[in-house]
Specification:
Order of helices and strands: HEEEEEEEEEE
Number of strands: 10
Strand order of the largest sheet: 1-2-3-4-5-6-7-8
CATH architecture of the largest domain: Beta Barrel
Distance between the termini: 90 Å
Helix content: 10-25%
Low-confidence stretches: 7-30, 153-179
Mean pLDDT: 76
CATH class of the largest domain: Mainly Beta
Radius of gyration: 27 Å
């Protein structure tokens, strides 16, 4: 007759299995949380100013969710290129990789899906292009984007009438409102 496992043995096996499953799931969640935190850092507006032989180029990047819109302007403010794309993030122990794809070019030459190494903090997004193994013919470039702070009007900053004459209204923005 086989000995019946004790309640303590069964409990130990169940707890060990549950602990391993929880540790595996927690690892997944940490990766997901890290990606979500990184994605949150990228949201909003960014600007890049490049000085070239032909003049200054200003690029504006807008990130919403996992989509970007990038527009490049010449010195006179005319659009040089513009495109929208989706992107994904890969975060490894040593580097972070940004890959954009499903590129919809609205102005300028067509963009193919690309990947680059990046880092981002609250106010700076650095792109290191041409360093990945699958980019042997690309010259390495470093681009430093700065965050564009968007002023959000307070609820108390509502337009109000400050003068009316000849049936025309003059509006102003004021912190103090009297309705």
């Amino acid at each position: 007759m086989k000995p019946i496992p004790s309640v303590f043995t069964i409990a130990a096996v169940v707890l060990t299995g549950a602990s391993l499953a929880l540790a595996w799931q927690t690892g997944e969640r940490n990766d997901d949380r890290t990606t979500k935190e990184e994605l949150a850092k990228l949201q909003g507006g960014w600007q890049l100013i490049l000085k070239t032989r032909n003049g200054t180029i200003r690029s504006v990047k807008r990130v919403e969710g996992n989509q970007t819109t990038v527009t490049r302007f010449d010195e006179n403010g005319a659009v040089i290129t513009a495109h929208k794309s989706e992107f994904k993030l890969e975060i490894t122990a040593r580097v972070k990789i940004f890959t954009y794809f499903n590129v919809d070019t609205t102005t300028g030459r067509r963009k193919e899906p690309r990947s680059y190494i990046y880092t981002v903090d609250e106010d700076t997004w650095v792109e290191a292009r041409g360093l990945l193994k699958d980019q042997p013919n690309e010259q390495p470039h470093l681009f430093v984007w700065t965050r564009v702070r968007e002023k959000v009007a307070a609820k108390s900053e509502r337009p109000r009438v400050i003068n009316s004459c000849d049936r025309s209204l003059v509006l102003a923005t004021s912190r103090k409102t009297t309705d």
